[in-house]
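User: I would dearly like some help making sense of a protein record. I have put the entry right below:
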Amino acid sequence: MKINKFKFLPISLLALATLAQACNSGKKNDTTDSTMSEHTMAHDSTTTDTTNMKDGTPVNRFLEEAAIGGLVEVQMGKIGQQKASIKSIKDFAAMIEKDHTKANAELSTLAASKSFKLPAELTAVKKEHLNDLNKTSGKDFDSYYINMMVEDHINDISLFEGATKSTDTAVSAFAARTLPVLQKHYKLAREISMQFDQNKNKK
């Protein structure tokens, strides 16, 4: 019987060791899964949140989105000056072209300092928006144009507000300089839009 007891002892120890190893492995896997989950959440958040911009990728995403937005604004500024039937919208469009051309130049310098190539043309969706805008005329154009400017600047402001919190000081400084300009554009676009709607309802 003693021999049998000694035969089972190593097996019992082996079972305990295996159990302990499994527990440790489980803890390690839990830690790994937790770490991977946190990393995934942080990575996913960069698709819409620019507050964690560092190590290149989120910064580059901001640069790309800001560049496309800037190109759209300049094009809309030119179109507005040509097709608007109301002086206030023509003047607004001229300001948009001027301010965004300046901001685009600063953005280009910033991107070059980071060896990042900005997109040279608009996306298909943005081109479609401009084409739709160009198809309108008269009061319909005025309404479509100014409402598009309101919506575009809501998106621009959201993007740049996030960028002001970037850990990249050059990016946050550029965003902080540009944000008040975007906010001014939004405020004016809203005012013109409200005036336009009021005048339209009187007729």
